[in-house]
Design goal:
By secondary structure, the protein is α/β, with parallel strands linked by helices. It has two domains: 137 residues, TPP-binding domain (Rossmann fold, 3-Layer(aba) Sandwich); 72 residues, SIR2/SIRT2 'Small Domain' (2-Layer Sandwich), CATH 3.30.1600.10. It contains eight helices and nine strands. The protein has a six-stranded parallel sheet with strand order 3-2-1-7-8-9, with helices on both faces. Strands 5-4-6 form a three-stranded antiparallel sheet, with helices on one face. Strand 2, helix 6 and strand 3 form a beta-alpha-beta unit. Helix 5 packs parallel to helix 8.
Length: 227
Amino acid sequence: MKKITVLSGAGISAESGIQTFRDANGLWEGHEITEVASPEGFHRNPEMVLNFYNLRRRQLLTVAPNQAHELLADLEQLYHVDIITQNVDDLHERAGSSNVVHLHGELLKARSSKNYDYIVDWHEDINLNSLCPNGYLMRPHIVWFGEAVPEFEQAIKRIEQANIVIIIGTSMQVYPAASLVQYAHNAEEIYYIDPTPGQIYHTATPVKLITEKATIGMQKLYDILMR
């Protein structure tokens, strides 16, 4: 069975109604990125940061996977499919994908702000009274700027094994995620689905562009791969 590794980004979830955090002026809904996505910002104003992610979590629970998520899950009929996503939502899992690596964390999980091994499922708001068993404040299980990416080595292993790579809904501008495609040493084909694809460097295999939004582009690619 051939192996497909998918690199997915905000563009695939945008079609489900998930708001992309960062807008054209570099702010996240009026907030400087360092205010809501850094350990320093959390230390300065934990209540504001918790409320920012509480809103994201509430919104996530109101949306559903779209056709692009579902088609990626359907590929498991003929392929072993690994998803490496920059997204913190659970839409790939809800669509039925079996093997998902979240590079930047998961919005429906929380962890202790001091004991990094204490990670739990969390679908409610996190507030200043939300404490781990050791009495430390809980925080979103999100990889913030300046923090290590714990799943990066796992992601490298999965893309190194891929026969086919699908890049979907990402500008390929955010590192270290954007560097993963350089590890696709065994890939016979690399497909990039995005209406405005970014530049991809250092790949031994030519990249085939599908300049469509995620749902349309994934339908086109699905028809190719399932023939």
